[in-house]
Amino acid sequence: MSHHIVEVQDLKFTYPDHTPALNGITFRVEHGESVAIVGANGAGKSTLLLHLNGYLTPIEGKVRIGDYPLTKNTVQEVRRTVGMVFQDPDDQLFMSTVFDDVAFGPLNLGLPAEDVKERVRNALETVGVFDLKDRPSYRLSAGQKRRVAIASVLSMSPDILVMDEPSAGLDPKARNQLIDLLKSFKHSKIIATHDLDMVLDLCERTIIIHEGLVKADGPTNEIFMDDILLADCHLEKPLGMKNCPVCSPHDNST
After folding, report:
1. pLDDT by residue (tens digit) across 138-159?
2. Residue 100, pLDDT score
3. At 81, which helix (H) or strand (E)?
């Protein structure tokens, strides 16, 4: 199962204006893990994710996806393994219909038309929007666009799913449906988000990124019970833990 593994070693990245974004990130994700990447705005989360799918390639440090070290020569193989769902679905949906958006990736793999059609059907049914297949993507709601963007990745049959702020802009019902959908994806998941309550539902492990470094990496419940750590990283305890007498014993003192 080595093709499901993500390994990042001493990854560094600086923007063209010389602003540092990543200052030596190191972690490893094993097959089947669901891992959250959390941190305040500007911590480096999105920049890190862009390295996991080859939109950025390492200048300093190493990224390994399965059997492939990420380089300009291996980026196409890496993208077959890692499915990336961007924060803004409009960055992924650009064809004339939902069907065409979801078919775009498999067609570019050179798959036969019948195989592509089957992949599109399966992906759209998985996210519950097959009935929208003939609709223009730009006319969909935010929640529908999110589902179609995920379907466009699932149609590629990725071993690893990487998502940037997947619950952003969703109403409570659509958010809960998304959580149920992601629970059904059994391979490795890496999710960067500010939605710490969603992290509690989905991710047994959490990595906190602060000022371009891994500040903490461990079991989600333990990470979120550390009030000093969260405060140092400009994060707040999830709402679901704030009134818990075990997680927040001082909150209920009288």
Report:
1. 999 888 998 899 999 999 989 8
2. 96
3. helix 75-81
Q: How many domains does the chain have?
A: 1
251 within a domain of the structure (yes/no): no
Q: What CATH number has the domain bearing residue 72?
A: 3.40.50.300
What backbone phi and psi angles, to 5 degrees, belong to 104?
-55, -50
Three-state SS letters, 28-46: EECCCCEEEEECCCCCCHH
Q: What is the DSSP letter of 135?
A: S
Distance CA 125, CA 130 (A): 5
Question: Which pLDDT tens digit goes with each residue over 62-72?
Answer: 999 988 899 98
The residue segments making up the domain with residue 197 are: 2-87+160-242
Does pLDDT of 115 surpass 60?
Answer: yes
Instruction: Flag whether 204 is in a domain.
Output: yes
Residue 217 domain flag: yes
The neighbour count for residue 139, using CB atoms within 10 Å, is 10
